[in-house]
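Priority: low. Protein: Zinc-type alcohol dehydrogenase-like protein. Input follows.
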Amino acid sequence: MKAVGFTRYLPVSDPEAFLDIELRKPVPTGHDILVHVRAVAVNPIDTKVRAPKDKIEESPRIIGYDAAGIVTAVGSDVTLFKTGDEVFYAGDITRSGTNQEFHLVDERIVGRKPKSLSFAEAAALPLTAITAYESFFHRLKIDLNGSDAGKSILIIGGAGGVGSIGIQLAKRAGLAVVTTASRPETISWVRELGADHVINHRQPLIAQIAALGFDYVDYIAIFNDMRHWNDAVELIRPQGAIVTIDDTNLPMPMERMKTKAASLHWELMFTRSMFKTPDMVEQHKLLSFIADEIDAGRLRTTISEILSPINATNLREAHRRIETETAKGKIVLEGF
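Result:
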């Protein structure tokens, strides 16, 4: 089967940063399903895993953490899917990734593909949808069904993949959404997705929030990096909550958080699969919810561009664009 991998961790400008290779088709056992991959998406985590370092793999490493495709075989313990089902998922960072023609994945972190979307449109969603959903409804404990309606949330990094679905989920829960964007095209993008207010993350946040009439915000989601930590601490409402997806070496002073009795939550959508937590199946459930919301027209895909086919050249290009930190929505590759 076809696959795209690498043996050396090289700059994306290097022609050998990715290699087109052939692998033996795997066989599913246990809770695994075998998926014929039709489309994959690229996320910042892909570029972080591939980032240059002094290491050489004995056999090609396959990464990739978003896919949509068709189930072609199932393990003996599988109960959620059958051969022929169309699915979408984000995979497991501790296992071989989705940049291969046939991929093994645990059924408990897989959802049914939205019927109204193409494989490419569906592949744009899983990792970011899981991240945003878990951030809001599992970490911050926002009520999806509306009992927190009217409360405010600041989403830092609204035009990226997680922010793009996060804006929609926050509006679905009835929140007033303030998000950041800095370029005309990204400002337009986040407004299309439902943001109530847009501020510029390249300028001080506190004054901009005050100009909107907010003394504080009830929730903050940091969906890019921690450079805005100090502003976030000042902006969070006393007894409010902040969630972040970034691991950082930057200073994170906590005195003001203690004074406000505010809480900080970390989100990593791979935690459940990495540690095989007893609630792994929650990701199957939430992806099924996302599919239902998409098919009902209450959420939309966040795809921004499709490259075809899935090969080393196009993966290098997708990684290059992600590394510029100017991409909006999701870049998807389709077809081997």
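The mean pLDDT is 96. The domain at 129-266 is CATH 3.40.50.720 (Rossmann fold).
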